[in-house]
Design brief:
Rossmann fold; six-stranded parallel beta sheet
Length: 410
């Protein structure tokens, strides 16, 4: 099959959506499919001829994010030339809408993965009951334009049902490339500890992800202040807009000597961070899946996390980790149990690896390919020999489509 991924989120950004796109694209190509990625500029040195960049500018409120053009004549021409069998979007914004217009014009199936729980992110614009309700409504309106919506967790499956989405919804988490994390690199671990001046005997409770308000990192900071295990340290791998406020909170609690910021790490450095750790520490309740949790499990780490439906898909309380109420004293107590019992930590780590194997990216890609095949069989590409409309007409149709998505039903 020829598959088009359309996303407003892609490299050079570093987040779960980008990781999901890259993992699925690579796994699908290993299965013999062709994957074309339509994403915002800037173009990267590693881009191949199957990555099409659409003009974009930095988002003023979050410069690491991009605002893309809702239409690109060059991208439309390349999408037509690729003769796609199916389009799969990963954001409901400009490029996602562009992909929806291309799918409707080409009469091919359109799939969307609901990666981000948008009502939990309205604080970046304006946090009110109205804006949360608006995010839910716009999510519903967009999803109902799709032939299939993929939910990466039971939490999202439930939310989409509560919001009244009528399009078919299928549960499909992003898989993890366990081979990246299966073997600890002793040299890499030692280098990471030296680089961030982490004493050899310190016990690491590690978070990996965006340093954003929605990740509930202040709770982790309050918890580390209550952890009693000697040498316990919180390592925060990532960066983001909440870092300055978080640093102020750390200073106010007087735990600066127990918290290490690494900034963004990539590739082998991320694997080394997991390998250097004793447990994964996680408090976010805004996740749609929490891919970093699966990575930590593949690394053989116990998970100490706040109880949440998305995390609960991967973590069984008392088996491969502990799920606690959203209270710092509860998180701290769970961390102390894991850090203070070597046998418990080893058994939970082994259970994590077993559960991560069931989330193999190759298994998930096989399921995704099966979903594609069913949709394509129901709506096969006509292998267009008919008249191709001029770009101005497609642009006008896209504008009409955007109005349909963002206008309340009568």
């Amino acid at each position: 099959m020829r598959i088009g991924f359309f996303s407003d989120t892609y490299t050079p950004q570093i987040n779960g959506v980008v990781t999901s796109i890259k993992l699925f694209a690579e796994a699908l190509e290993r299965r013999g499919h062709e994957v074309y990625i339509f994403a915002p500029t800037p173009r990267q040195p590693t881009d191949t001829e199957r990555i099409v960049r659409i003009p974009s500018i930095p988002f003023a409120l979050q410069p690491e994010m991009r605002l893309a053009s809702i239409y690109s004549q060059n991208a439309y021409r390349l999408a037509r030339r690729a003769d796609l069998d199916i389009i799969h979007s990963h954001d409901p914004f400009a490029i996602g809408l562009f992909g929806l217009a291309v799918a409707k014009r080409s009469r091919i199936p359109y799939v969307h993965t609901y990666h981000t729980l948008y009502p939990e992110y309205v604080h970046y614009v304006w946090e009110t009951r109205f804006t949360r309700a608006m995010a839910e409504r716009l999510s519903r309106e967009f999803c109902d334009q799709c032939d299939m919506v993929l939910a990466p967790s039971t939490k999202i499956e439930k939310a989409l049902a509560e919001w009244g989405v009528t399009a078919p919804v299928e549960l499909l988490p992003t898989g993890v490339d366990a081979s990246r994390f299966a073997t600890a690199d002793a040299d890499g671990v030692a280098a990471l500890r030296r680089r961030f001046a982490i004493p050899e005997g310190d016990r690491l409770l590690t978070f990996v992800g965006r340093i954003g308000l929605e990740k509930n990192l202040d709770l982790l900071v309050e918890a580390i202040a209550r952890v009693k295990t000697p040498g316990a340290r919180l390592m925060l791998v990532g960066n983001g807009p909440h870092r300055k406020d978080l640093e102020a909170h750390i200073a106010a609690l007087g735990v600066g000597d127990r918290v290490t910021f690494t900034g963004y790490l990539q590739g082998a450095e991320v694997a080394a961070a997991y390998a250097a750790s004793d447990a994964f520490f996680f408090a976010s309740i805004s996740e749609t899946q929490g891919l970093v949790v699966a990575e930590a499990m593949a690394s053989g780490l116990p998970i100490v996390a706040v109880q949440d439906l998305a995390v609960g898909d991967a973590v069984i309380d008392g088996v491969n980790g502990f799920l606690t109420p959203e209270l710092p004293i509860e998180l701290a107590a769970a961390a102390d149990r894991v850090l203070g019992d070597n046998a418990l930590r080893a058994s939970m780590g082994a259970a994590s690896r077993v559960r991560a194997d069931a989330l193999s990216i190759d298994l998930m890609a096989a399921k995704l390919a099966g979903i594609y095949e069913e949709l394509v069989a129901e709506k096969p590409s006509p292998r267009r020999k008919r008249y191709a409309p001029p770009a101005s007409r497609v642009s006008g149709q896209l504008t009409q489509l955007r109005r349909r998505v963002f206008t309340r039903r009568p």
